[in-house]
Specification:
The chain contains 4 helices and 4 strands. It has about 180 residues and is an alpha+beta fold. A 4-stranded antiparallel beta sheet has the order 1-2-3-4.
Length: about 180
């Protein structure tokens, strides 16, 4: 109820503190960020695994190339590798990696002769390359002599035949066999 007009009752407004004296509203608690330790650990582990896999792939590639690349580091090594491929493994494609441009007819003829004798005698020959001698003819040409031994067991008796051979090799981005013939 209101006092009558003109009465002496003082009117005191409701006591409210000024707004600048108000206590700041209590802030809502800031939600705690979820710990990302698991995510960090998984990221580090994944990174390490990926790095190891890439390193393994790179190492495998390098090792494969070294193992698969033909060794043509010297004339005698090129000749022996050629003869191993042509006569022992009988892998014409591998043998061509050691030649100057194509198969050597004289070695192909020897391989054909060996195969024919194996069929006739019903046995298999063991081929060995022995007594290799290199004579350099300048810095990029060489003559290599070697003895090719063919051995087999025929009717229980071990037999062998040796033939001296002469090969011409050239350094063409690695040593290669360019010619070969039985030595006189």
């Amino acid at each position: 109820m209101q006092p009558p007009a003109g009465s002496q009752v003082s009117r005191v407004p409701a006591q409210r503190p000024p707004s600048d004296h108000l206590a700041p509203p209590s802030p809502a608690p800031v939600p705690e960020r979820p710990r990302r330790r698991l995510r960090t650990v998984l990221t580090v582990v994944t990174s390490v695994v990926v790095a190891l896999c890439l390193g393994g792939v790179a190492a495998g590639y390098v090792l494969y190339n070294r193992a698969a690349a033909p060794d043509r580091g010297s004339p005698d090594v090129a000749v022996v590798n050629y003869l191993q491929a042509a006569l022992v493994s009988r892998d014409q494609n591998r043998a061509l990696l050691f030649t100057c441009g194509g198969p050597l007819q004289s070695i192909d003829d020897l391989r054909t002769q060996v195969e024919r004798r194996e069929r006739e005698l019903g046995t298999s020959f063991s081929i060995n390359i022995e007594n290799i001698v290199v004579v350099m003819n300048g810095s990029s040409a060489a003559t290599v002599t070697a003895v090719i031994r063919r051995s087999a067991s025929v009717d229980g008796v071990q037999q062998s035949l040796t033939d001296p051979w002469r090969f011409e090799a050239q350094d063409r981005n690695g040593w290669r066999v360019c010619a070969g013939a039985p030595a006189s």
